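[#protein-structures] MJ: dropping alanine--glyoxylate transaminase here for a structure pass
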Amino acid sequence: MSNPSEPSNPSDPSELIHRHRAVTPSWLAVYYAEPIELTHGEGRHVWDSQGRRYLDFFGGILTTMTAHALPEVTKAVAEQASRILHSSTLYLSSSMVELAEQIAELSGIPDAKVFFTTSGTEANDAALLLATSYRRSNQVLAMRNSYHGRSFTTIGITGNSSWSPTSLSPLQTLYVHGGVRTRGPFAELSDAEFIAACTADLEDLLGQVGGNVAALIAEPIQGVGGFTSGPDGLFAAFKRVLDRHGILWISDEVQTGWGRTGDHFWGWQAHAEAGPPDILTFAKGIGNGLSMGGVVARAEVMDCLGANSISTFGGSPVTTAGALANLRHLLDHDLQGNSRRIGALLSGLLRAADLPVVREVRGRGLMIGVELVDSSGEPSAAAAASTLEHARELGLLIGKGGLAGNVLRIAPPLSLTAEEAAEGAELLIEALRRAQAESTDRATTDPSTTDPSTTDRSTADRSQERDPV
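AK: finished. structure tokens for alanine--glyoxylate transaminase:
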């Protein structure tokens, strides 16, 4: 692989972080004790402003879906930018219509229409607007441990306290069991019993609600929650209940879409026995880094609004041209199949390491979560933060999440090779060993660290414990 040219005037990271903190909010998360600036990339690798190369196992937060600097995408964007950058939805756009046609067909939703946005947050906001307008209700069901965005509305349906800074909301939100398989009150049940228990919980909840419920919004695999999910078929069981009440199902595919899970193109397809969702939201990977999101819905639902609207930036000529090229590359090169094969290889290598600090390796395809615990088996945010730092030192970029901040999130571009998977696994295992040794040292020298209230937070604080989505 060729080494892209380094910037002629590399910035000083220490100076840049000082300037960054002076002009951005204190709650804006930045990874690492010594934050890095990524200046360029190629394939599955990126370079920082000091010229250091990293194997990228986080893909710009599951956004670089195919590859960094994919030639087809950069060519399409450059050619479109040389013609016209912007027009808005007040004017026709061939690339927007063509992309909408392809996404509608791929969605699996009959009689589908597509509305483009600039982010997953905005897509989920629009989906909630459609559902509450269609059902004439502000009551929404959401999953515990969920995350759906950073806007006022989507924060109101987020079932993860780390990402919910206010209890104020325009919606009445009711939370359902089922997003986490291996923890919680139903963890010891079989898959069939787990689904039955969660469905009974849903039925009981609906029996206590006054008025119509608009929708259930759910991630097929919870992203920020730590790549957790219920068993296959859970949402099919839910949908049979929802359909009896006329309640819509919104599948939040911002992180699970476009074949990342390997087994399916969309996450909802693992729960397809009762049919497709009424509304599907997407973002991140389709743009490969371009600001792109959107909503797919049945025409009856999409057309329910009784007022005019537009999107100034959603579906812009540049983003749709780039997204079209990206989607064609993904389909032509069967990156979903590659995600299934390489994801299984990578998960297998991580499981085979059999480290005490690792409670579970989970996920699907190239959407892998590694849950970390301390010597007592309790969630360890310190171990996750330490692993994050050691991985960067070794030349590997990963993410983290989970309700307790103790889950490593592995989500490289879907073009990852077997050789790169093996290399990344080796680096990550070494980072985990180092974090495990530090955890052992802490427990040996300071017994109070076994008390969660006195846990050493220095490493976690360096990474700010807020985990980018």
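MJ: nice. Residues 418-445 form the longest helix (28 residues).
AK: one more thing. Confidence is low (pLDDT under 50) at residues 449-465.
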